[in-house]
């Protein structure tokens, strides 16, 4: 870990967190009843820190992000309880007008699919300019100049010319750069990146990760990196929160998480990755399927798929146990706090 | 299993000089559109019982090649031999009979299953068409297939929407297996699935291969999975194979700068090896506007003058490797 990353980790654990989510419960109304998409989630992000929020589809990671931005689907999703304190203010209690001054300005978001998140009838440059004009009192010429500067910052070639290009005239990688330019245009202290590379080609993924890493240092932003891809987390995050079926399962500095995964689910995720040294053999698959949020198994919500389940797991849900000072896991195996035994997949 | 089995050294599938050109959208009423060379002269051999991985980014022609190999599309040029037999010469009843021998597993288990058919009818359809069983025996075969891919026989009477993504992909595998194929083309079979489910399907495909002596063409953009499953890896760029090597060699020592760039730029699930990724600059070119010379030259860190002007040929390098790059001149 680099010195700055170590500092960021300490910041995240300290009291003066930039963002502090406490016991967030977000529910979704479905035609089959109400689902707790986010079920008591807590985490903190320090200034300049990158926190990876990892999980599979339906684990609640995107709903957590939308709760922070207060962009939950209307009449379907709502925050039931908890707090989201950002720079000392609880975002859940802000009037909508003040929240609008936070979105894009203080916290911005980069979505997965740049083609559907950009407006097809405006030029890319105009959309970046609009994001700036919304929050900064600048003349039209000044905001345009700033927009071009942003396009240059995200390394779009010939930014003056590309300012006038429409989204469909750009490649997927270039569109994602436009999205990043928009998100960073007001230099927000926090950027939420929701699967920023998942829709991109392999060779372009590397470019975007490199770009995000560089801009994060340069603009000293904190990043909430939401992804299902452990490799992206390994490349970018300082700390990681692993989510499963709406709950936080494990929280650790990134190196610790990969070296000593302390929840059987995390072990399973890491073990199921194809690796050169296991070529041709069987992958350590996690059996079963991600549970239906309306029908969670009793006790630990992973118990029906867990190879190391014992009686207690089906009776009561474990709390988060401390594995070490900065490492916690929601598993009865960790009850001693010593970390107990470690699975084969943990010896990475 | 396959009735046609003859010499085991005959490849399960051999494609030579396969091209598939499309006519792009017309520029105007009087000017026809550009020719899009989706697949531009591919030679590919699938040895019996082996897995060949096909890697490439969007638009490189890998899915078009797959569709041509199973004759969902007719190639513009080239030949395809299925177990030594000229597959393209087959017409009518003979073609229909041979279609059984090569099957496909699709990427998206949501759109590739008919939502109005029960799982049993979807899997049983091929069995009936190819008269592999009749009457009650069809149901028995469907039940056995479902159990073989890790589902319960009761799944037969259900509809696709009642299953999760991973389960649907198992249904897709059972459908492909139902007609006792020799070759299975799996086009991104795990990319739409959750991480914890991917390994299940990769393991299942591996088990089925050894049980039924299947030959696989495994198409994917995820290098980790391709490295895991493949004996040989072919890398495609702009409609052409740019490198073909045994899997362990290509990942240890890639020859083509594009292969090297792909391997270097893929994020690795190892936080200790972070940073300094040699990302490939630029974007994948549009298939309607492929650069002259070597198609990769505008993005290549080792570009030379010759690369801009003359397209390189695929040349042999040692006993088992082939590469299309001027860094490796023929006869060297």
What key phrases describe this protein's structure?
A: 348 residues; alpha/beta; 8-stranded mixed β-sheet; 4-stranded antiparallel β-sheet; 13 helices; disordered C terminus; B: 332 residues; Rossmann fold; 10 helices; 12 strands; 21% strand
Describe the structure.
- The complex is a heterodimer of chains A (348) and B (332).
- In chain A, 34% of the residues lie in helices and 22% in strands.
- Chain A has helices at residues 3-13, 61-69, 96-102, 114-117, 124-135, 140-153, 159-162, 172-184, 202-219, 230-236, 254-259, 264-271, 311-315; strands at residues 19-30, 33-45, 50-54, 77-86, 89-90, 107-110, 190-194, 222-227, 239-244, 247-253, 321-324, 327-329.
- In chain A, strands 6-7-8-3-9-10-12-11 form an eight-stranded mixed sheet, with helices on both faces. A four-stranded antiparallel sheet of chain A has the order 2-1-4-5.
- In chain A, β4 and β5 form a beta hairpin.
- The longest helix of chain A has 18 residues, at 202-219.
- Mean pLDDT of chain A is 88; it is low at 10-15 and 337-348.
- Helices cover 30% and strands 21% of the residues of chain B.
- Chain B has one domain (13-26, 34-323): Rossmann fold (3-Layer(aba) Sandwich), CATH 3.40.50.
- Chain B has helices at 62-69, 92-99, 119-129, 136-148, 165-177, 195-212, 223-229, 247-252, 257-265, 305-309, and strands at 13-23, 35-46, 51-55, 77-82, 85-86, 102-105, 183-187, 215-220, 232-237, 240-246, 315-317, 321-323.
- In chain B, the strands form two sheets. Chain B has an eight-stranded mixed sheet with strand order 6-7-8-3-9-10-12-11, sandwiched between helices. A four-stranded antiparallel sheet of chain B has the order 2-1-4-5.
- Chain B has ten helices and twelve strands.
- With 332 residues, chain B is of the alpha/beta class.
- Chain B is globular and about 70 Å long.
